[in-house]
Amino acid sequence: MLLLGAGLAVRFAHWMGERRRRWIDVQIRRQIESGAVASEGLKRSRAISEAIEWVAVALTYFIASILAFDRLGIPLTTLVAPATVVGIGLGFGAQQMVGDLLAGFFLFAERQFAFGDVIRLSVPGQTAGITGTVEELTLRVTKLRTAQGELVVVPNSALRQVTNLSKDWSRAVIDIPVQVTEDLGRVTALLREVVGEMATETRWSDLLLGDPVVAGVETIDVGYVQLRLIARTLPGRQFEVAREIRYRAATALRSAGITSPAVGDSGARTVP
Fold first, then answer.
1. Helix axes of 2-33 and 40-71: crossing angle, nearest 10 degrees
2. Could you tell me the end-to-end alpha-carbon distance of the chain, in angstroms, rounded to an integer?
3. Which of 6, 39, 148, 156 is most solvent-facing, going by the fewest CB within 10 Å?
4. Which domains does the chain have, with CATH numbers?
């Protein structure tokens, strides 16, 4: 009866956790559909609900086991020595799992990232790595969904360098290559007009934290220069803003008869 009750309690915990997560997902979806971003409180609540569910299941089985031994008349004191030996063995054999759980605990405590955040996992000191959206976060593993639809599962102890791309605010940085023979003043004025018009549209002004700016010439290479545009956006919305700026800039430059440098040995890139 104790084991049956424990099984029912575990199923109830899973049911409550799933119901809570579905409710949070609905609230997050409504915020995104309204043009806003998911609040940090909702994302953290979803991650914490999964952790609480896992802890509740573990405690239920542990307490049920203790009560079952007591009902069977097995003195718990006689299990101390075997449990110590087993605990030492598991301690050596399950070091990785213990490390995962401790790392997961600090992820929650320090609020490094939460469900729905866009993060990049990489080797310390490097900026290249795996980028994706946090689809599930537990005390043991973190699951990412990449832009290609791949699900990446990473133990929490293996997270060495995490870059949160959707924390508080984000920034879209776009480099536009222009031939050195073009009138840079004219090109700069045209780009400022493009981003200025974009900032006045309701659809994009809701995603922008201030007007986009043309910072000027970023680099000078053989045969072309790079003009940099910068836009501060809501968390996680920098990608769609950057795509729209690239599209508008490319269209405006083409309409004005300004050609982009061709890809060649110099390493120049065409305007996307």
1. 180
2. 66
3. 148
4. 2-164 (no CATH), 170-255 (3.30.70.100)
